[in-house]
Every structure is written in C-alpha cells, then in structure tokens.
Amino acid sequence: MSGDWFIADANAVTWILIAIVAFSLFQGIRRGASGSFRQLLFFLASTAATVVSVVLAAVAAVAASPYLQSRLAERELARPASDVSFLGQFGYTALSGLRDLPLLRIAVLFLVFHTLIRLVMGIAANLLSSASPLAVSGVPSGGAVSRLVGGAVGAALGAVRALLLTAVLFAYCALFPQGPMTDYIQHSGLYREAASQVIKPATGNLLEDHLPVFAQAMSSELDQLWQKRYDIIDAEMPDDIAQAAADVTAGKTGDAAKARALYDWVGSRISYDNEKVRVYEKYGEWREQNPEQTFATRKGVCIDYSRLYASMARAVGLDVRVVTGLGYDGRGGYGAHAWNEVFDSGEDRWIPLDSTWASTGNWFDPSGFADTHIRKGGLTG
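The line above is the sequence of Transglutaminase domain-containing protein; the predicted structure tokens follow.
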C-alpha cells in the first residue's frame, strides 16, 4: 500500500480496521487449520445466504409492489374521524403511505420477504447441519503447521471483514458528504487506500452516484408520510370553520369555483405572521398552531394558511392536499414553503394554489406555478 499511514496515522478508523484483521489472525492461530477452515466455510455460506436472500427479496418486492398498490387503491381508504383511536390513525397513515409511496412500499415488502426467506433458510440450514455435520478432512488439526495455516486463513477472513466495514463507511460518506464523521473517516490512510483500490473499482459509480439519489428519494417519501399526519391532526372540524367554509362557497357550483372562493377568503383574511418567523429564526422556537388557532387569530405562516385552507375545503366536500417544498423568494433563491392542491372532478386534475401569496397576485392555478413552487416530498390527502 502507498503512503505512510501505518507509521504516522493515528486515526481511530485505521486502527479499528487493523484490529479487525489482527483479532481474526489471533482467532485463526488459536483455532488451528481445521477450525479456521470450518469458520471460513461458515462465513462463505452465511455470505452466500445473505446475497441470495437479498436478491430474492428484492425481486419479490418489486414484483409484488404493483399488486399491493392496486389492492390498496381498490379499498378506497376513507380518512378516519378525529376521535378515532391511535391504532386507527396509525393504520390509515400506514396503509395510505403504502398505497401512495412506491419506494416505501417496496422497502416494506423487501423487509417482509427478506425476513421470511432468511427464516426458511435458517430452518433448512439447521436440518442439513443435524443430518450431516460439517467436517473438514485433509486439514491438519494440531501443531505449528496447523496454527500457521489457521493464522493465514484467519487473516484472510479479517481482511474481508475489514473490507466490508470499509464498504459501509464508504456508503456513509457517499450518503452524507457533509456528515459529522465524514471528514474524519476520509482522513484515515488505510480507509482511503482500501476504498480507492478495492471498494470503488468493485462498485463503480453505484455507491457514490446512485445511493445518494435513492436515499434522497426515500427521504422525500418519508417526508410525505410524515406530512400525512395533518390528515389526522386536522380531521376535527370546528363548527365555526365549517360554517365559514359553507358561507364562503354558498351559491358556488363545481369544485373549481368553490376552491377559488376559499382561496380568495383565506388569502385576504389571514395576515402573514412575521413575528412567528422572527422568533423561529432568532431562537429556534417553532410555534405550532392548528387551523382553529389560525382562524381565530387571523395570523399564520405558509403551513398555517395551507392547513386552514385544507380544513375549510374538506368541510365543503373538496378533495384537498397540503404540499410542502420550496417557494421562490423573489431574489433568485428558494425557501421552505407550503401550499395546496384541490382536485377538480370536472376536469379530472389537481389545481395548484397558494393562498399565502394571494396578496401578491393571482396564485390560483396560474401558468408556470411549478416554476416558483418545487415539491420536496410533502404531500397529504
């Protein structure tokens, strides 16, 4: 290996990797050739079983995902009432998440199939081992030669284990390039050598390029699942909000007309709460408020506008979403933002609207809405 890591490198990662090899070497010497080869066979069998189970579970999950999605869609899950039990709330959120989020659905199916496959493999392995005990013939079982051979096998096993840890660390650095330990890990000379000479050539661009993209997509879906809590939190409909929604949409026909009337009302009646933003930015204190509080105080920030709008829209029978992501700040950048989408059954499409920005112009289904609003996972309803 190149570099002077062995003499000068005091990085803990380096010495953990060395310790793994050294411990395996010591175990190999202690076990001797026969025990070390038995350990090697067990390791190879376990590795093969892991690879096979992962591949089979992945194939099964991808194949079963469309079937599960269609079955959940057929059930037409209804949003539970506000007084439903915690299990009822959790069940709705979990099932709707599995229905709407493909990566989450595949991940859950993968875990289920992988657990079942490993269980079956474990039972089969136990039956085979009891029927024909593992034996290693033709290998010396004692003496200096046995210990020498055992040490060599143990060192080889240790090197493989160290490489597996290096691969895990490499994946962590790819996922979290600005992570708290990334710089420290990459300062390990032995890690850099193993990563550049073995891990990177073996994986190509799979870990560095594709793993962060997958993780970001999975994070986006988990964020969507988290946002679905508003469907439960805001399910209770105070009489004053329901009555106001009915009054605002009185005489309006069609989903779009009702949605527009509610947009005009929320956008003109609610004032942006700059003090709430100031307190959060200066002290890190977030003042959570529900739609009833927003309705009573007539003040809020974008998520409060959106939650109140969603509550009023549901009160008059509209299918509505709360969406979170990034909104254009007018200065060339984007900041955290929330808005709504309402389903227009007449046109069979979702109408985007931003009641928070209503005072600055028309943000009810304008052309180019997606140019100023970037969804980043948050979506409920």
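Note on the example: Residues 5-223 form one domain. The mean pLDDT is 82.
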